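Notes, p. 3: input format for complexes.
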Amino acid sequence: MLIRKPSPLLASEITPEEVWRTRRDWMMRSAAAAAALGLSGWTSRRAWADDAALPGKPVPQFTVPDKQTAFKDVSSYNNYYEFGLDKGDPARAAGALKTRPWTVSVEGEVGKPRVFDIDALLKLAPMEERVYRLRCVEGWSMVIPWVGYSLSTLLKQVDPTGNAKYVEFVTAAQRETMPGLRYPVLDWPYTEVLRMDEAMHPLTMLVFGLYGKVLPNQNGAPLRLAVPWKYGFKSAKSLVRIRLLEQAPRSSWMKAAPQEYGFYANVNPQVPHPRWSQATERRIGEDGIFTPKRPTLMFNGYADQVAALYQGLDLRANY
Ligand SMILES: Nc1nc2c(c(=O)[nH]1)N[C@H]1C(S)=C(S)[C@@H](COP(=O)(O)O)O[C@H]1N2
Ligand SMILES: [Mo]
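Output follows (319 residues plus molybdenum atom):
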């Protein structure tokens, strides 16, 4: 998102040494805890080896043919405002994020509300690898091999009631590790929202990894959303709470700039952002001076799969 910077500080206040020290302390704590609990095997190892393998079975039906964006770019050019506003801030600062212990509460209009431990979620369904486009509202895009499974798999566990019309996603707000929370850029914690049928669509993915590895913290560890037909800000990172609701809540971006970021945020080249066109995009990694921009596709290229969700809806009024 493009917004005014409140201050030049943010992530630069955290020195690499501090990040490193925090992470090392935590790694030692979790290793000690795992030893004390007698845990062994890949689950406890992965808790402190942040580049641990997390393979997924490739799903051709959910794999776009585009060339994949290099891992280096995917993991170093990020939006994660809790860690700063510059694209390099999350990779520099998010090492401090505490990703264990971690739970996700699924609650609200459900028959069986439940708090899931991250390690239970990792085992809830077989991991799939799906290659999705991600199109940021700022006008750039990437192609990322995500690892995870459909969000619907999780939602079905809690028996949504007939009143569940919307799903709100609440993300982590760790005062101690997230320097961005000191600035009122957004109404923290960062929240997003989908309609229930969007949340249940098989393309909507709960993501735990990318490129066959556990998610780098800057990409939203230990779990995030990927909603490939919507602008990137809908794909909330580091989820802690999922609320099924009867009334539509407002998301953090709707509160911050309602005229710019609507409820739907479907990728739509025909509806310009109030301050710039959305007709084309720059694919990260392809950006030589002579490289033409790519035309942005309706629903980010996923129209065949999702257009039916919006039949009869005016997509200019409902942006
Ligand atoms: N919690 C949280 N989630 C977030 C954001 C954020 O600032 N905080 N930024 C969003 C935006 S604007 C984009 S484009 C994508 C970027 O995901 P990536 O850094 O993994 O490419 O994350 C989205 N999810
Ligand atoms: Mo974005």
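The chain has one domain: 66-310.
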